[in-house]
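Entry 12.
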Amino acid sequence: MEPFRLMLQHDIGGVPVVAPGTNRITANISARDILQLLTSPHLAEQHHLKPLTVADLLYDAQRPHHGTADVIWPIMVPPVTCHPSTSLREVLHAFRVARVHRIYVTQEGGEKSGDLLGVVTLKDAIGRFLVRQEEEKRERRGEDKEAFPTTTEVGSDGLSL
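Predicted 3D structure (tokens):
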């Protein structure tokens, strides 16, 4: 359950899984996966998870999260990836087609091809798209684009958004 501890600790909806001893992404684990685990009788039985009630959730919400029990994760979803040179249009299309909220940026070509560089979330991509639209409107009006504060940054992974 370490992936879910990380998601809770960092307030994120998913984490990449990398191959042992490498930085090569092999899967994605998301909050939806825990939903599947908690609602699948077969998986819950296999991992000796007792059925939870709403009272359990309310109790858990009122105490610190210091769980130590590990469960071997039975559900791994293949990651959706892109490269630093991928266009914003392609990334937005991938979000729509794959029905995901995060796309992992991987190294393109060479010895480290496929190594994880970063992540672009749907929120990042839409935010950057909206910022770009506003900047273009201001440029057409002859305004200084620095006058518009950029609040969404994709990062230094080179993704051309």
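Annotation: The helical segments are 2-10, 31-39, 41-46, 54-61, 88-98, 122-140. The first strand starts at residue 14 and ends at 18.
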